[in-house]
Predict the structure.
Amino acid sequence: MDLESVAEFREPDIKENMEKVKRLGITFGVHSETAATGVEMAELDSAIETDYKFGHDRLKEILERSGELGSKYVLIHASESESFISLERHLQPSLLVDFFGNRLKEFLQKKENEWIIDWALGGKTEDIEKVVHQVWLSKGKKITSQDIEDIFKSNKIEPQNFLWNDIVGRPLSEILRSRMEDRAEALEMETITDYEALPEDKKSAVNEQIRRALGFLLKDIKTSLFDYTQSRHLGYGPERIAYYIIAKYMEKNNDPLWINIIKKNYEYLAKVENKTADKWKISRGIKKDSVEDEQFRLLSYIWVTAVSAKYIWGHLNQDKNPMPNKYSDFKPTLKKYNMPLVLETPMARRGVEQWLRLANPLQMYYLAKDIGSDYVQLAFDLEHMLSVRVDPEIVIDLMPSDGGKFVRVIHAGYPAALAPAHMQIPMGSEQQMYLYKMYYKLWKKGMGKESDCFLVFERGAPESMQQSIIALRKIKEFMEQDIKPENLVNHPDFFGLAVGEIASPERQLSIITEHARDPLRGLIVVPEETYTSLGKAALEKGKRPEEWKKEELR
């Protein structure tokens, strides 16, 4: 059942009507709202506070209402957020949150996370102050950004300039250089003397002031980061800053989602190109699985998927939130109704098919496994996967041996890359055979063996149902008999060719015989048709048509 708006839950007598449906023996699941049908969605993997809160509260209502009606699951598209690579072109509020939905500023100010600021700066503030001041003492006003970068390098200070370029608009070395120059010029105006011409005692005093100014400056830079993450002013893609910070946090803490998803992403991407994971990484120039590595960072589809999964993880683990009761916990509702949240590969607009934040079921598998299959499971939609340039066969082959048991829903349909086509599955077609091959692989990895798996035909036009249901019943029947795809040639009834089946030779011959003369329809012309041949003879004898008609009826 497609939910197009939460307002549908307020339909009069909906609960009583759904009870009638259940008494008919009908089982149902709910396909939640989706941007694909024009709903203005707040995504669960958003790092914007307003979106995080709105998305969480809205899903809470959908889960509760669906559970009350007896739904067997609630399905959502895993992520339809703006693709990460296009964020820099989109205005967003800069009020950022961590994966639990708490202010990112508060996250950064926690004692256990202070290292993140040192990482962003490239080292301890006192060390930076010391080495930069050394360069100032030797270069004076002739100091350049390159001089500062050189001493950073020699002292293994590595500022994350990709962050500062976004936040302040300049690399750290240039921020420090310009501030020291400004301070020196201000002192020159006070003394009405050029810095270089100052006596040594006065120059020493100025240098000490510049050293102290460096300390204040570094504190200001920290403050600028905090201020940036809690501003309601619009900026171009500030969400990227939150994703960078959480990515580093996950890497540092060896988060299972970070390790498993990135490893599996490498395996998938390598297999697409018939390479090993190591060779694929070498071909892309990746040296380290960290946003510090420029090539790794730029290939955002490798790591953004892990951060996206972490934000969804946060929504489903509010019982672990260090700020308790800030957001509701979904788990009691899911457990109460024995109703999992099911993640499906989303659709994408043309041009960004492969850039979605979370689209590959391999990534969703590790999220579901980390949270627990009682709460999160998967939906496989081959049509959606093909439409976002994900190869279903490679995905299934790379799934762990227990991967199938996490599959709760199959959205079946003609496997077309231009989704949503929702075309019928013709009996005996290549499409029916392809679907069987894919579903059989999933079945061998546990799909439908420990819990029900719903094989759903997502129909489009009414005519699309004519053969699809029969084709899917055949797929289910033969899968449960453990008939290997290569052995289906020995089972003509799978293709509807056995006696009595829809495509059997006997039935086809009957249909051919019944309609054999159809091509002649409308082509034979009999001049005597109106009055018959006797009527024509009567005309030739002078009889009028009206008289003949009367005689014909006597």
About this structure: Residues 104-228 form one domain. The longest strand covers residues 230-236. The radius of gyration is 34 Å.
